[in-house]
Amino acid sequence: MAYETLLVETRGRVGLVTLNRPQALNALNSTLVAELNRALDGFEADPGVGCVLITGSEKAFAAGADIKEMSGLNFPQTYLDDFITAWDRVSQRRKPIVAAVAGFALGGGCELAMMCDIILAADNARFGQPEIKLGVMPGAGGTQRLTRIVGKAKAMELCLTGRMMDAQEAERSGLVSRVIPAAELMAEAMKTAETIASMSLPIAMMTKESVNRAYETTLAEGIRFERRVFHAMFATADQKEGMQAFVEKRPAGFQNR
Ligand code: CO8
């Protein structure tokens, strides 16, 4: 089925989603959310996809929820429709997701990037939670994920003032893993996604699950979880192959990829 707000393609083992509402700086409306979930459903179900890459345009990853669509909502509608909850499905995906962010990642756009597993930023990227200027606050995890990632002081400042931070500040504060010259962003992001997709898929998925556990539980519980999953990996053919390939000084040929 065709997409109205996205470009969706598979490049090798990478599932690529490009947000495509240039007239609205990729503002996230309900059609886009539904289409993004549909695209991600497809990639999750496709054994040929080992990693997903989400990107926007050079000017905007996404300038937030669609304010024009949202402005007329009232409380009973938001409550009855459970407005925004569908967004969270992005964070519940099991395959690794890389976000390649150029330009604005604001409000829901910043929140969408934070639902991904790795954020790579172009040097022109700008991140912020400006909802307070609209008379609301972040509603798709911004007050929670941003605080855990950058700490209370910076999260509080960004959410209370609506100030944007540039790519360098975002890297310094741990929001993005790397800053890349804008012209090279997509090539670098594809390289990262291809590298992840070349690994054993179940091992990559278990690794993602284990890192995410660090956000959900105590250190002792997280370590216990990691140990159990690590032990289970010795039941896979890919562990045998990965270690044997190292010993034989050759590239690993993982079964599950
Ligand atoms: N919603 C709808 N339309 C938008 C949005 C948006 N968030 N952002 C930009 N646009 C539209 C503009 O209205 C304009 O359309 P038109 O040409 O028809 O007037 C077009 O995109 C281009 O925008 P600008 O002319 O404003 O471009 P500038 O380069 O001058 O400015 C900015 C770029 C600074 C990014 C500016 O557009 C801006 O401030 N945008 C709004 C940013 C914002 O407040 N984002 C937060 C939105 S609220 C939110 O995300 C709540 C999260 C709750 C979770 C929901 C999950 C989806």
From TrEMBL:
Keyword terms, alphabetized: Fatty acid metabolism, Lipid metabolism, Lyase
CDD domains for this protein: crotonase-like
Which reaction is the catalytic activity of this chain?
a (3S)-3-hydroxyacyl-CoA = a (2E)-enoyl-CoA + H2O; a 4-saturated-(3S)-3-hydroxyacyl-CoA = a (3E)-enoyl-CoA + H2O
Q: Which organism is it from?
A: Salinarimonas soli
Q: What class of enzyme is it?
A: lyase
- Cite a single GO MF annotation: 3-hydroxyacyl-CoA dehydratase activity
Question: So what does this one do?
Answer: Could possibly oxidize fatty acids using specific components.
User: Can you say what this protein is called?
Assistant: enoyl-CoA hydratase
Similarity comment: Belongs to the enoyl-CoA hydratase/isomerase family.
Against Gene3D superfamilies, the record matches this protein to: 2-enoyl-CoA Hydratase, Chain A, domain 1 (3.90.226.10), Lyase 2-enoyl-coa Hydratase, Chain A, domain 2 (1.10.12.10)
Q: What is its EC number?
A: 4.2.1.17
Q: Name one GO biological process term.
A: fatty acid beta-oxidation
